[in-house]
């Protein structure tokens, strides 16, 4: 895109800046539209599993329900508690929403459709995903209310518990792929098993890592059964209790953008990203971004399925799973995977 703007007579610096802005908008605007639509899809899936109809009044098949909800909160009054720290209270939802968008910069939608094709893309994603909890912590502290504060403490403990095991899981992926570059990780999965399957998920040593990563993704995004930060039976609405209007909507947008990000990471790191499921020439006729979006859709269905069917964990169960199961198992697999790769001469 930079060369295109240069061909119009623009200097390199201006062409690069304009192409970067266009790339950001090409990702951010469809993502925000997708967030609105997947909230509708989420509600439809829950309704189907409970033998209900779900949203079906606003627009054809209820497709405009999310936009109606957005208009409603936009027109509501923003209420700030008198004892709250107003600056941090208002910045917190902005932090959550902004951080949720930043990680998409290194996600490859196709072989050449990536905003920032950096060599440390996976480290960037890990760093950015760790920042998401700051919005929750800031909201809990600034609200000056006990329920949001308890929620913020839960969120920080939950993030630390599962971020550690996610780090070890990603080490296994990096060891096998030999790169931190997201596109490189996708290409390393081509014809991975018997030259037929595109994806680390078919690897017996990496399949358990994918299962743990999927469960950790649910915990990282505070989705059921790990939604202890907003457990309505204990904390009213958790860190969102004192929020209203667009500040409340910003948390919803950030939450679902994070869910889509985790779906994209599952697809990219273990299911071949933009590659077709099988390494068969005819499947490459379908554009890579179509395969990528289909995989994201599949994982979002899994996320909604789990939320509709699995009861919420107790907090002690949540901590035990993270520290006593996932952490030692992921560390063990780092040793097993690295030992196998050394024994087979993979690092030679």
From TrEMBL:
Q: What GO CC terms are in its UniProt record?
A: plasma membrane
Output the GO biological process annotations, alphabetical, semicolon-separated: aerobic respiration
Q: Which molecular-function annotation in GO is an example for this chain?
A: quinone binding
PROSITE patterns, per the entry: COMPLEX1_ND1_2
Q: Please give, as recorded in its UniProt entry, the membrane topology of this protein.
A: Multi-pass membrane protein
Which keywords accompany this UniProt record?
Cell membrane, Membrane, NAD, Quinone, Translocase, Transmembrane, Transmembrane helix, Ubiquinone
Q: Per the annotation, which location comes first and is thus the protein's main one?
A: membrane
Pfam families this protein is in?
Answer: NADHdh (PF00146)
Q: Which reaction does it catalyse?
A: a quinone + NADH + 5 H(+)(in) = a quinol + NAD(+) + 4 H(+)(out)
Where in the cell does this protein reside? Cell membrane; Membrane
Keyword Translocase assigned to the entry: answer is yes
Assembly, in brief, is: NDH-1 is composed of 14 different subunits. Subunits NuoA, H, J, K, L, M, N constitute the membrane sector of the complex.
Could you tell me what this protein does? NDH-1 shuttles electrons from NADH, via FMN and iron-sulfur (Fe-S) centers, to quinones in the respiratory chain. The immediate electron acceptor for the enzyme in this species is believed to be ubiquinone. Couples the redox reaction to proton translocation (for every two electrons transferred, four hydrogen ions are translocated across the cytoplasmic membrane), and thus conserves the redox energy in a proton gradient. This subunit may bind ubiquinone.
Return the similarity comment: Belongs to the complex I subunit 1 family.
- Please report the name of this protein according to its UniProt entry: NADH-quinone oxidoreductase subunit H
| Source organism per UniProt | Novosphingobium guangzhouense
- According to the entry, what is the taxonomic lineage of the organism? Bacteria, Pseudomonadati, Pseudomonadota, Alphaproteobacteria, Sphingomonadales
């Amino acid at each position: 895109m930079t060369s295109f703007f240069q061909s119009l007579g623009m200097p390199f610096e201006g062409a690069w800046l304009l192409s970067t802005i266009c790339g950001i908008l090409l990702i951010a605007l469809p993502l925000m539209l997708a967030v609105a639509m997947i909230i509708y899809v989420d509600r439809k899936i829950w309704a189907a599993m409970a033998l209900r109809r779900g949203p079906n009044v606003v627009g054809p098949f209820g497709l405009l329900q999310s936009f109606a909800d957005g208009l409603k909160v936009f027109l509501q009054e923003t209420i700030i508690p008198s004892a709250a720290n107003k600056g941090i209270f208002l910045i917190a939802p902005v932090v959550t929403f902004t951080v949720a968008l930043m990680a998409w910069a290194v996600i490859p939608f196709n072989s050449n459709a990536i905003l920032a094709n950096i060599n440390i893309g996976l480290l960037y994603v890990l760093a950015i995903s760790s920042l998401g909890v700051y919005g929750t912590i800031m909201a809990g502290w600034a609200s000056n209310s006990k329920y949001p504060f308890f929620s913020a403490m839960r969120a920080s403990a939950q993030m630390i518990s599962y971020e550690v095991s996610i780090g070890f899981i990603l080490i296994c992926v990096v060891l096998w792929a030999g790169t931190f570059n997201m596109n490189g990780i996708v290409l390393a999965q081509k014809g991975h098993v018997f030259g037929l399957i595109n994806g680390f998920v078919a690897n017996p040593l990496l399949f358990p890592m994918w299962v743990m990563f999927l469960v950790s993704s649910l915990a990282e995004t505070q989705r059921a059964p790990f939604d202890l930060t907003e457990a309505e039976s204990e904390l009213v609405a958790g860190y969102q209790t004192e929020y209203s209007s667009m500040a409340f909507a910003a948390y919803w947008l950030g939450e679902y953008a994070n869910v889509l990000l985790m779906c994209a990471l599952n697809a990219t790191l273990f299911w071949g990203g933009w590659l077709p499921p099988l390494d068969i020439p005819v499947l490459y006729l379908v554009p890579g971004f179509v395969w990528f979006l289909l995989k994201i859709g599949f994982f979002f269905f899994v996320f909604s399925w789990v939320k509709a069917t699995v009861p919420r964990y107790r907090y002690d169960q949540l901590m035990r799973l993270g520290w006593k199961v996932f952490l030692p198992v992921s560390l063990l697999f780092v040793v097993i995977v690295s030992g196998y790769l050394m024994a087979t001469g993979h690092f030679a």
